Amino acid sequence: LSVTAQIAARPVGLLLGLELSRNPLQTHPSYQAIAHLPLAERVARMRDPQLRAAILSEQARATDDPLFFRPNYDKMYLLGDPPDYEQPPEQSLGAQARARGCRPEELAYDAMLSDQGRGMLYVPFLNYSDGNLDATYEMLRDPRSVPGLSDGGAHCGIICDASFPTYLLTHWTRDRKRGDKLSIPFVVAAQSRKTALSVGLDDRGLIAPGYKADVNVIDYGRLHLHPPKVHYDLPVGGRRLMQEVDGYDATIVSGVVTRRYGEATGARPGRLVKGARSGVQ
C-alpha cells in the first residue's frame, strides 16, 4: 500500500474563553450560577470584586463532559495578538503565576475578561509534548508525509484550525524563532502538488499549460494571521470560530478570480470532485 501521513502544522489545541464552549472556571459553582447570562452581563458581574473572590476561592470539579478536563495551567497559554502557537513552557499561565507569586486561576480570570470578555486561552494537546514544534518539523520534512488535518469548523466553539495552510507559510518559512524553518518552495510544493498527488488529483498542483488553473496570489510580506473570533452566522444564531488573514491578493479557481483582497467576487467556477483525476486536461 502507498501510505501517506497527514501532519498538523502546529499543535492541535483547544481555545477556552467566556464566549466559547468551554473555560477553566466553568465547573466553579459561583461561575455556574451566572453562566446562563449573556456575555456582556456575565462580564459585568465577573468584574465585581466579591464575585471574583468567590469564583477564585473554588476548585474545578470533575465532570463527564469529554471536552472538559481539570485545568492544567502549566499547559495553558494566553493566545495573544498576533496568536502565538509555539510558546515556551515558561510562558504558560502556571509558570507566569509562580513568577508573579499569584495563582494561575487569577491570570486566566483576568485574561478571559479582556477585550470585553472575548479574551482566549490556548491549550495545545497534540504535537506539543516537548513544549516546541521540533518533532513537527521532522514530520513535515519526511518524504512520506503531507501537511494537513486543518479543521474547517466541526468544533465551532472550541477549535479553530482552519488557518493551518496560512500558518505553514507565515510560521514555518518566515516567523519561527525557536528552531529551524522550512523553505518557501518546499512548503508550496507540499501544500499543492504533493498534496494533490497524495489523493489522486494528477491534474493540478503545478502552474503549467494544461493543468487546472487554481492559484493563490500572495503578498508574502503582508501575510498575517489575526486571532480567532466568534461569529454568530449559523442557523438560529449559532456561533463558529473564524480566523481572518491578510495578504491574499487573489484566489483563482479554474482561471477565474473568486476572491480579491479577502473579499468574494461572487464567481463560483468550482465543481465537486468525485474521485481521482488523471493526466493533463
Secondary structure: elements and pairs:
Elements: E1 5-7, E2 12-16, H1 29-32, H2 39-46, H3 49-57, E3 77-78, H4 93-100, H5 104-117, E4 121-126, H6 134-141, E5 145-147, H7 164-175, H8 184-198, E6 215-218, E7 224-225, E8 229-234, E9 238-242, E10 245-246, E11 248-253, E12 256-260, E13 263-264
Parallel strand pairs: 1-5
Antiparallel strand pairs: 2-4, 3-4, 6-11, 7-10, 8-9, 11-12, 12-13
Helix content: 25-40%
Strand element count: 13
Please describe the biggest sheet, giving its number of strands, its sense, and whether it closes into a barrel: 4 strands, antiparallel
Strand order of the largest sheet: 6-11-12-13
Radius of gyration: 21 Å
- The total of helices stands at 8
What's the average pLDDT? 92
Strand-residue proportion: 15-25%
Domain count: the total is: 1
Structural class: alpha+beta
Distance between the termini: 27 Å
Taking pLDDT < 50 over at least 5 consecutive residues as the criterion, the unreliable ranges are none
- Compressed to H and E, one letter per element, the order equals EEHHHEHHEHEHHEEEEEEEE
Shape: elongated
Write a structural description.
The chain is 28% helix and 18% strand. The chain is elongated and about 70 Å long. The protein has one domain. With 281 residues, the protein is of the alpha+beta class. The protein is built from 8 helices and 13 strands. The strands form 5 sheets. The protein has a 4-stranded antiparallel sheet with strand order 6-11-12-13, with no helix packed on it. A 3-stranded antiparallel sheet has the order 2-4-3. Strand 12 and strand 13 form a beta hairpin. Helix 7 packs antiparallel against helix 8.
